[in-house]
Write a structure and sequence with these properties.
2 copies of one chain form a homodimer. Chain A is mainly alpha-helical. Chain A has 12 helices and no strands. At the A-B interface, helix 7, helix 8, helix 9, helix 10 and helix 12 of A face helix 7, helix 8, helix 9, helix 10 and helix 12 of B. The structure holds a DNA duplex.
DNA sequence: ACCCAGACTAAACGAACGTTCGATTAATGT
DNA sequence: ACATTAATCGAACGTTCGTTTAGTCTGGGT
């Protein structure tokens, strides 16, 4: 019980408090299922202040999209591998709003900015896989784009179904602590499947 | 322009008309984003009739869940492989409400009955894969349950992200016509990845 | 012929919704 | 000290929400 009452008159701090509250609630209950009053209460501000800053509820949604997209853009590779985010950045992730849970919902909901984000991730994956092929680690393919796309879909799809992944395999892909996901049942099984394949040679 | 005006006094027909409209709208806009009035208008009935039949909006949601679950339970294997539903059943799928789109949203939203459904699919996949192992087609593994679970997650995750799958690979997993998905870029790439693996031997 | 169960409608309720408007407060420049 | 600006609140707007209540209409049993 230290700084419970937010300081008044600090615009950017209030704005990010609203943003954090919105991301949390949107991630939990969906955009349509969350009212501005609930967000305002969580951010400890008056509802009309949200409109004053973001114009409209959808403006706030867009701001949340952009905020999460900015984070993801800096960690594309790690997010797509659903783990192994370096500990320094990880503190920001556990302390702040649940960015990955928000992303998971945005992926399924088809929010405006998410498609572009996914496309970027696929493009990066193409390059990343091409490097692996060049260094002889990764098997070449006739369809490098399609392979990258499918790997991205599988990774992000697992993130979107993180609730089921947790129930079935015991890993919370949205709350990775120190690369736990890679050593988990999820990571080990993914290695086995992608490593040796599934069909008998 | 044949039977535009629905017959009055046919309880079960009206009920399924409401159910179909609800599944369509829920799949398109989400449960929270769809009002009972919109459903009533789509089903061409009065809003209060929905309450009369299903008690509450959430009761209608549960009825939709059950209806979709019943369909999926009869086609578990095909749904998980996201294709190859036999043409007879397929007509019901294209004519009726978008059951797979509803399922995709329910998977990500975590609706009540979906978890049990996924668990059943995984259990079936365990058996199915065990048969493959017994017949020598499929490589054995030390963790058969985890393998089945991950394959299910990948399949259903791709379904949940069907919008991105369509944009990236040109396949609509929710609107499969005659096993097109298996021969598509999605199906071929999945075969390649699961067949030979990704790492160079 | 009557009646009655039930399919269905009409109108309204209170609550919650997103948003607007005007006032109040506190910091800032002069 | 004063004017200005912006941050923030308080109260209300009109709309839509899910639901309720009371009713009308109709087909089938007796």
């Amino acid at each position: 019980m230290s700084d419970e009452s937010p300081p008044r008159g600090d615009k950017s701090a209030t704005k990010s408090r609203i943003l954090a509250a919105a991301i949390t609630l949107f991630a939990d209950q969906g955009v349509a299922g969350t009212g501005v009053r609930a967000i305002a209460a969580a951010a400890d501000v008056h509802p009309s202040l949200i409109i004053h800053y973001f114009g409209t509820k959808d403006g706030l949604r867009v701001a949340c999209d952009k905020h999460v997209a900015a984070f993801v853009r800096e960690h594309k590779q790690q997010v797509m591998r659903a783990g192994r985010i370096d500990p320094a950045e990880l503190r920001d992730l556990s302390d702040g709003p649940p960015l990955l849970r928000y992303l998971a919902r945005a992926l399924a909901d088809g929010s405006p900015h998410t498609a572009a984000l996914v496309d970027e991730m696929v493009k990066d994956a193409v390059d990343y896989l091409a490097e692996g092929v060049a260094s002889g680690l990764i098997r070449p393919t006739d369809y490098p784009y399609e392979r990258a796309a499918l790997l991205a879909i599988w990774s992000l799809g697992a993130l979107a179904l993180h609730e089921h992944v947790q129930r079935l395999l015991g890993v919370d892909l949205t709350n990775l602590d120190g690369g736990a996901a890679v050593e988990s049942a999820y990571g080990q099984m993914a290695s086995e499947l992608l490593g040796k394949g599934i069909f008998r040679t």
